[in-house]
Specification:
about 60% strand; 7-stranded mixed β-sheet; 4-stranded antiparallel β-sheet; mainly beta
Length: about 120
């Protein structure tokens, strides 16, 4: 069984910063692509950023220049540093990982989400 647990969400004023973490635990052989997604009320879940095991990153246009995704492969942990936050960044943020388990099967797993609220 694999679990992803996010932490670090909260309430922040516009222009402020927050840092999210996502710890992956369980029967893990390897974690390939990881990513952060978000879902605002009444909207579909959308991509924020992804990062390959090699460190290559990809960002949504809304996140470029403000957010930084990173990972620690030794700790099986994903991070998202968010700066210059705007009210429109308010959403539940989810992490996702493509995990190879001990049975060599590759599955995508999601965390339970963490709320980020930016007050204007």
């Amino acid at each position: 069984q694999v679990q992803l647990v996010e932490s670090g969400g909260g309430l922040v004023q516009a222009g402020g910063s927050l840092s999210l973490s996502c710890a992956v635990s369980g029967s893990i052989l390897r974690i390939d692509v990881m990513g952060w997604y978000r879902q605002a009320p009444g909207k579909q879940r959308e991509l924020v950023a992804t990062i390959l095991r090699s460190g290559i990153t990809n960002y949504a246009d809304s996140a470029k220049g403000r957010f930084t995704i990173s990972r620690d492969n030794a700790k099986n942990t994903l991070y998202l540093q968010m700066n210059s936050l705007k009210a429109e960044d308010t959403a539940v943020y989810y992490c996702k990982g493509s995990v190879t388990g001990w049975n060599f099967r590759v599955d995508d797993y999601w965390g339970q989400g963490t709320q980020v609220t930016v007050s204007s």
